[in-house]
Amino acid sequence: MIDIKSTKSGALFVCGEGAKQLASLKKEIEDTLSQLDYTSLWLPSLVQGSFFHPQNVDSGHKEGTLVHAACLPFFDEVENYTDNIYFGFNRVHRLEPLRNLNKQTRMESFEVAEVIITGSKEYTTTKYIEVKELLTTFLSRYTDGEWAKADDSFIQKYEKEEWIVGSGVNKVSIASANKHGEHFSAKKKVEGVSCCFGIGIERLYESINRGEG
Question: What is the pTM of this model?
Answer without folding.
Answer: 0.91
